[in-house]
Amino acid sequence: xxxxxxxxxxxxxxxxxxxxxxxxxxxxxxxxxxxxxxxxxxxxxxxxxxxxxxxxxxxxxxxxxxxxxxxxxxxxxxxxxxxxxxxxxxxxxxxxxxxxxxxxxxxxxxxxxxxxxxxxxxxxxxxxxxxxxxxxxxxxxxxxxxxxxxxxxxxxxxxxxxxxxxxxxxxxxxxxxxxxxxxxxxxxxxxxxxxxxxxxxxxxxxxxxxxxxxxxxxxxxxxxxxxxxxxxxxxxxxxxxxxxxxxxxxxxxxxxxxxxxxxxxxxxxxxxxxxxxxxxxxxxxxxxxxxxxxxxxxxxxxxxxxxxxxxxxxxxxxxxxxxxxxxxxxxxxxxxxxxxxxxxxx
Amino acid sequence: xxxxxxxxxxxxxxxxxxxxxxxxxxxxxxxxxxxxxxxxxxxxxxxxxxxxxxxxxxxxxxxxxxxxxxxxxxxxxxxxxxxxxxxxxxxxxxxxxxxxxxxxxxxxxxxxxxxxxxxxxxxxxxxxxxxxxxxxxxxxxxxxxxxxxxxxxxxxxxxxxxxxxxxxxxxxxxxxxxxxxxxxxxxxxxxxxxxxxxxxxxxxxxxxxxxxxxxxxxxxxxxxxxxxxxxxxxxxxxxxxxxxxxxxxxxxxxxxxxxxxxxxxxxxxxxxxxxxxxxxxxxxxxxxxxxxxxxxxxxxxxxxxxxxxxxxxxxxxxxxxxxxxxxxxxxxxxxxxxxxxxxxxx
Lengths: 346, 346
Hints:
By secondary structure, the first copy, chain A, is α/β, with parallel strands linked by helices. Helices cover 40% and strands 24% of the residues of chain A. Chain A has helices spanning 13-24, 26-33, 58-66, 83-90, 109-118, 128-144, 162-168, 183-193, 198-207, 216-219, 222-236, 255-263, 329-345; strands spanning 2-9, 35-44, 48-51, 78-80, 94-97, 122-125, 149-150, 174-180, 245-247, 266-276, 285-295, 307-314, 318-325. In chain A, helix 1 (13-24) crosses helix 13 (329-345), helix 4 runs parallel beside helix 5 and helix 6 runs parallel beside helix 11 (222-236).
């Protein structure tokens, strides 16, 4: 039995989803993968960082979180007010960094990841900011430190996208990528295709928890843009700045435009794309996030609701498409879990 | 730089496809993966097994094959009439077993694989017979020998299916699988959906090389059945016998049935499926290969021509679908290449 000492920074929906899977999947991990995961530390922004060398009681942590009680009520723990200080003082084999995405400066996640990699820890993350803004820097640091930095859940949650690109199709070269990478906008566009009104559907999506109170990050395409930057770093080995991506959201799509697309046998989708281009421009990559009317023969056209999808053009495989959930507590936890298993088996 | 000594048994379309990729991708493998592959032996049924410790000249082998000349014209090689004898005498790090599929007794592939595993070699294979008829036995043997047995190309060529199931979604449990796993029948059914006649389309597919002169293995569902058996072993850890799979081919589908499905907004596809069932029957798995009329909301319904697709129901990911090429020289070679890279990086 291999023991893996895990530090979990971020204990919101995603962190709790991973914690829940570690409990539910404990027997499977031990019997099928010969792996025992010991959660040695947990942090969230409100309650700081707690550590227990013998391992924390995950069901108790989930119970405390569900009751909005401080994690520090866990008995027999050491405590640091700062996650960064706690991580530096205690370490572990793997950091799961699942604090919230920040596309301005990627903090606090990027500092957590840098510290972990620097002290020789592997990192798994669902946080889009660090990989979107500094993907190549962090991947290079991981490479120098001989550790893994894995990020399956940053794009389409646990639906295998990053691992498909880097491992499932290892040795193939990607020529272009096109994807529906944001569930909220796809939910809204699918409902609009059924004849409904943008404002009405947005309000409904907010009521159901599919859209944030401030929906800007989704409907203006910033979330899809962040995922596009991650795919540029991972798939093409190229760092793009956010302003190098053409971005147009879905807020100005009219009912008339939806009807016209339908009449032409097409569907309007918010499409994120990356294309390798000849090296005359300032970047070898063209990157765009924009609504496009897709013919029904396009595998992306019929991906509806909160499902996401991505199509890769590969030199040796023509076109490969992956369709699956793009968000969700357990779905995102699953991506972190598969990353943990990849690290444990390397 | 890591050196990997490769033995290649089978030098038809698939073996030549892998050899061609090893030449084309040589720089990529060295620079991105730090891997140098030395092809130490090659065998085909007509010309026997040749070995050269310093490595064979792959372009020369491809040239000899294209001119239908014996591989033994390669200079400075040792020769065995039997691939099995040659493999036993020489070894290597990895066997690529790509002889033709035989669903009666899986020979000669199964003997090649058993010998390689027994002498501590990893195995990558595109040969469906051994994994379909003895998947669990061979996977257990590999496990006991602490080597890998990988088979990406047995299902949907290099489109990542096996690795998606076992690695990309590691830790998730599969509940059911449904797939379009045979390109020939999908090509025929797609053309029939466009109003054409079965016999006419079959003749055209044969002329274009999509269908064999004897199309039985494809049109009667035996090829899809073999892939279903492999998915049962890999995804569910369960060995099914061919006769435990309900099988119906596409030869009796009438133009009238196609038209009726179209009128109902459906498409007829040859669907292979596996469902976990409660353990009252004689098998915990229900396995079927049969033509089904699928509604257009089904992600499999619009997969046309020689493209293949597979949908997994997973406990933590709801539904994940992968669409991609299901055959082809380089596409199949790509699956073997990604398997080789997985072994080299473990």
